[in-house]
Amino acid sequence: MERYLIDTRTDSVWPLAQRGKTAVTAQPAADYGLYQMKGAFWKPLQEQLQLTQTGQDLLLQFDEGELLLQGFLDQNWEGEPPRITLPEATTIDPDLEQALQPHLQVEERGTLLLSTEEDFSGVMESARQSGVDPLREVEVAAPMISSGGGQGIAPLLDLWAGDTAAATAVPNYTIEGYVVAGPLQQGHGITIQVYQADGAALLSTASVDQNGHFVADVGGYTGVVILKAVDQSTGGDFLDESTGQLKDINADLMAVGVVGSGVTSCNINPITTIAAKVAGVSDQGVPATPLTTIKVERLNQQVADLFGVEDLHSTQALAVNSGDYDGSTDTAAKQYGDALAALSGLDEKNAGKDETNDENMQKTINDLVAEISDGGAALTFSIVGQKQLIDGATKAANTVSGLLQRVEQQIEEVFSPTVSVVDNQPGITTGDILYTITFSKPVTGFTAADVQVIGGNKGAFAGSEDSYTLVVQPDAGLEGEVTLDIAEGVAVDGWDNGNQAATTATQTVDNVVPTVTISDNQSGTATGAITFSFSEAVTGFTADDISVTNGTKGTLSGSGDSYTLTVTPDSSLEGNVTVAVD
Length: 582
What we know:
7-stranded mixed beta sheet; 6-stranded mixed beta sheet; 9 helices
């Protein structure tokens, strides 16, 4: 069955999806009704309807379909609030019925009218307490004939009377969203172009207000769309999150989405641009291969998951440097803003605080896209890409307090644990080495067999979750380095993400005892200097380490592997002077 939502004051018509949900943003003073086409005429919808609400939205549930009137229950309408005329068989959540009662009116022809003219706080409070519970029927005897009167109803009455020439509805679908690269500034010069799935046929052009909001009409078109943000100015467009400076959009920002009936949400920002490019859309907005709705919806959600974002398009990003961020309780919006701030930090790392590299945003996007691979069912973010994102969050955290910790937390489910290795031996060692191995989050499956050691033998191994220790005994006679490596993917976190490889740990070892050669500078009968030559550089060698017989030690000089000692033979000695190193 084809169902339609009609605003009788403006004659706006929204075809409703036969399966799934149609979302329409409620407008002030709207007078909504539900209809179906029978032959060439509009007829009131005659089927069972269930009424509930979520937040400030009114949810109407049909057989295999839903209509979400967004913002219908908002208590802060400027001017006259909207109202809706409901079919004869409408069921209402029993916990909501009492609160709704003052706002329900049975019209003279038997229709049930719901309006928010009065204070709606009781409805909102009941909804918060009840959730979506089983509904029960409200008895309304007569079928709907009128949508409640008013000047805007005349064209529909003509249809009911048999005016077949006016009976064909012209769909008018819209795309609504926000452009975010940081808070946009007044006079930014950005417009939105909406193209069909081929990236060539222009559907609509829309202006963007100073809050980044845009609405684009696409007529009756449904299916995949490609949106491009076109910057027609050369000045600063937005306030950068990481640097705090006014900055021009120096990247081809775009998005891919799927238009259904009614209003479709579709945002444009660097992360939606990444999703579009992963889908195969070029910087010019042209797809390399045909885009399907299934592919677009899958990639949009999977890219959102990689960056810890709830939804790329239905969630409105809240920039970390906007005036509303600190006071907001919208976790999803703030997480979106945090992820975008991490990309801003990567922009800064790529180009610095000045704009000597005028394509640093594009470089950030391209670098991250290069590290995302599509396996057909799931996306994989390479270790390099993960490190880039964390590097960006680290950079931006210099100006955005707590950003690094928030980003690390929100990407925990999809990011691989890092691992660091330190030992207890400063400088050169001759004995056992105790290594401490620390993962960025708890892991399982990690054993001593996963540790690769060169130049020593593994000993005692202990630990669990995110901290482990390993004793290594250097090889006998080793003069060189002991190295320790932990490969990628030898342990997994709670979401089955394999660990990143550790940076090789190196410890210098010297287990070779140096030798020393003693010589003097005199042939035959000698009086004078004695030279000590070691096989390698040594420290701590003093005159006290030398024994002299039949002579007196003088001054020891030298360093490294060569030292000299002056020895004076005993007076009137005729014989041997002996010198030894103890």
